[in-house]
Known about the structure:
- Helix content is about 30%, strand content about 35%.
- It has helices spanning about 25-30, 40-45; strands spanning about 5-10, 15-20, 50-55.
- Strand 1 and strand 2 (about 15-20) form a beta hairpin.
- The longest helix has 10 residues, at about 25-30.
Amino acid sequence: MTSTIKIQIKNVYGNETIYPACDHARFLAAMAGTKTLTPEKLRLIEAAGYGIEVVALTGRLAGII
């Protein structure tokens, strides 16, 4: 069984920003020393065996995905 973290993707000042949306994701962001997650950090999290679930999507990507 794999653990799944939840994230939110928001458009902040024209940039797509990934925010943790659950305690586990917030813990991983804190371990990385940030309040947000980057695509690179998400790849490392996936490589460690975690699943990633997008729970909210706003901005440009909302119309694409």
